[in-house]
User: What shape does this take?
Amino acid sequence: MNDSAFLILFIAFTAMMSIIPFLLRRFKIPMVISLLVAGMLIGPTGLNLVSVLSEPLAFLGTPAAKTASHFNSLVNSLGALGLMLLMALAGMEADFKLIRSARKPVILLSILTFLIPAATGYWIYWHFKPADLPGKLLYASLFASHSVGIVFPVIRELKLSKTRFGAAVLISTVITDVASIILLAVSVQLYRQWSAQAHMVIKGTLSIFDHMSTSLLGNSFTPVFLAIVLIYLAAAMFLVNMAGRWLRKIFNPGEDMLITILLLVILATVLIGEMLGINLVVGAFIAGLGLSKVVKDEDMVLFKRFESIGYGFLIPFLFISIGMKTDFSAFLHGGNLSIILFTVTGLVVSKVVSGFAAMKLSGFGEAAALSAGLMTVPQLSATLAAAAIGKELGILDPQFFNTIIILAVVTTLPIPSLVRWVIEKGKVSFEDAETEAPLVVREEELL
Assistant: This one.
């Protein structure tokens, strides 16, 4: 792609990415939703900005289709980096004292918000295809997963990341994502065995398990994969922490090279996790958790620099890229209406009920418990990626795949605003909030 064409496209793209959320801010729409809406307007189902602008730029020597394709790939890559840095920052912000104090709600949220939605997803798929065990397990994993990419920004916007409530929701979200990844891997391996396609290669994945014959592990795949995940989590957190401490002794906190090398450490952790079949969301969070104490010195220089890179540049591309990939044609070709109704209703009810019950049992008030339940509802990048794998392998037919796309849209867009409304109307008090945060969250502070 021509450098001048890239520059013009990037300026126009950045302008849209800045102006649309700025205008929507006046309507008190949360930033996450503003960026998603901006992406939908920019993307193919909206104004199709990239393709439209690529046409008149063809005189610079690069065909319009090639320019648009390369630029869209760049946006998606920046979005992936944004997701990685968002989760690394979530790990860095984790307060180990809060994690210990939030042990009970973390355990209850992790168990209930995994088991109840997973059982619901399993039953819904069984209702339509009772003989398809891999499909039932895949649908269960989709229901059990949470969207950390939505949960953490909402927690941060509401200034809850340093509260027992915020720590419980965030940590349990990551735990349930790990469990859903394991369930997804089991369903995929089971399907490969059942379909007699042991050497089937799953495209678009780095996981060694997706490129090896199922006969190598056979029925022992589940315990072996679980052991690998646990070893990875423990080793990654320990080694990243050791590497971070060693680098802090060599470099001063203000040196640019230190940020570069720490980013390399996070990227390497994520890459190794992806090769082991562990989603980058989990790998980046564990890397951030390992660096938590390293980047939090007295003046928080390192942490603030990571925040500037993330929230100032890369993370907005995450939500923009997700919005651009939203396929509204799924609403026209969703297929069986009963599948859509069962899936959307079943997921929302199971998530809200399980989250509400877990937080009530942990001693939180009704409004806080309802907020926690709502935060587990959004299904976004991890769910769509898992559904895409299921479609590619043939586990999910087009009806179920389109249903998951519809589910992602209808569960993501309204939730941040709804959570804000519940906290606002319920006048929820977070007694262990940060000292600079008000005890009662007010409307103007949620923007």
The domain at 79-446 is CATH 1.20.1530.20 (Na+/H+ antiporter like fold). The first helix runs from residue 3 to 25. The two ends are 37 Å apart (CA to CA). Residues 179 and 194 are 23 Å apart (CA to CA).
